[in-house]
Amino acid sequence: MDNVFLRNKISAMTLDEKIGLTLSIIVEGTTFIPAVEGYLKDYNCGGIRVVPAEVYKQRMIINKALRDQGQEHLEKIYIPEQGATSPSVTLRQYAETLGRYHDMAVSRRSGIPLRVIFDQEGGFSRDLTFGGTPIFPKQMGLTAGGDPEMAYETGKALGRIARAMGINMIHSPILDVNVNPDNPEIYTRAFSDSAEVVAEYALAMARGMKEQGLIATGKHFPGRGDSDGDAHFEIPIIDISRDTLWNRELYPYRVLIEKNMLPAIMTAHSLYPAVDDENVASLSKKLLQGVLREKMGFNGVITTDAIGMKGVTLKHDVVSACEVALDAGSDMILLRMATADPVGPLIPQIINRIRDAVEQGRISESEMDGKVYRILESYYNAGLFNTGGASAETIDQVVADKAIQSVCAEANARCVHVYRDQDGLLPLPREQRALVIEQSFPRTYCPNDGHWYSGLFYDKLSAYSNQLSFIQTKVKATAEQEALIEQHLDDFDLVIMTNWYYRGGLDSNNDVVRKIAGRGKKLIVVGNTPYEGQCIPKEAGTVIVQFGVTPLSIATVADIIFGQAHPRSIWPVQSNC
To answer: Across the chain, what does the average pLDDT equal?
Structure first.
């Protein structure tokens, strides 16, 4: 049924306001950035995708009046030191920063609330890392817990955390069915390699999010689980039949759409030749209009993945890609680049290009109004017009809530699995002498505060034993670090080492595992995926898998190694890999 309130809102909007509403811009760092005022007030951008832990890449403050006069050289310049990182702040301080953006947005002529978006997939893959944020396992870790109710409780908890921070949209749940063990990008971000299991757990998580007024986004349509490429760096080709696509990849979407649990869907920058052999899904009318809208009956919001990823930019410039994406059927565009290139200066070009497309009839006014209606309807259904993005709870209250703490602790306790113990090493006696090799992750993934820091695994193990030595490496050890390990290896009969894998080129320490095993050393490997090629080589006789590296799951691993806890997980994929 048509919503009169929303129709009245739309009829009062200018074309530029409608265009701006479709754009989600990246806002990095933990402190207020003045450049955002230009994006929100001058260009009416409808949303911000927050990346608080990211290195600053902002380059220029956009000023529409100066640009319209051809005087962009008079704009203020904002160029932080190369490699600058955002300062450590409390969650309350960051919530206050987001509150300033909300106030700025609702003070605009349209008065439309600001959508504030984050990723909080669990483990290393999340935006809120600092200040004692409750960190949950990856989605596959929730499946390892063996109970969809935990996914529901996690969705509720994430909703409460987000809304207390001033965040109202999340790019989850992930609906990919990870059938390819060599998938470099999805792996444990998926619930499972079973379409039915993915649908069951995703439905539960989305229900929890919806109850808390958090706009859920299923991704990556139509499915990136059967891929051996990463769309951040290439154009993955998902060469499967139409029947497989419908019955496997699209099954979770079909279930959640039928249950009305998907306010939004994010598209994949991948090619599906069985449906469209020319355009990646994000730019494909055949997939977005023909399959998602017409065949599957989805009437919610369609958003692109980051438009600056190589899956798009290898064939299209960013400005052209934005028009093609909207024409293909997307309602929102995520303006994030895959490089250090600033997206800010492109925003006026993008808006001009889309305005021209509407005025020239390449995108009809009714199409644009339909996009705006779907976006505003998602706000309306989540209560944003009533709350303006504010929550009755403060973030300090939510983090201190024993119910939130209990759910997070239980999820992390149930996401650790002893995959094999061929040598019968577990549990270790406390007097066992051993070398601990632990990877150090960049601050973007590990906040390096009192709650979570590189070296935490060694500290948790040392609570049980004072017989442990320690060598730290990068995620993938350097030649110098490998030489250091080699130098000291003969002094130990047993090695305990993390072999956590992360996408995007960080990789893992598989080579070090194989070299140590080749020396005949007893070896306990702690990985974070169920896949041999990523982090649990067959040469390792004792393997523990934690499906999501978090402070609490690190503590659980230490407890299991020294016999103070027993694994409570199930194996979350259909095959032993």
So the answer is: 94
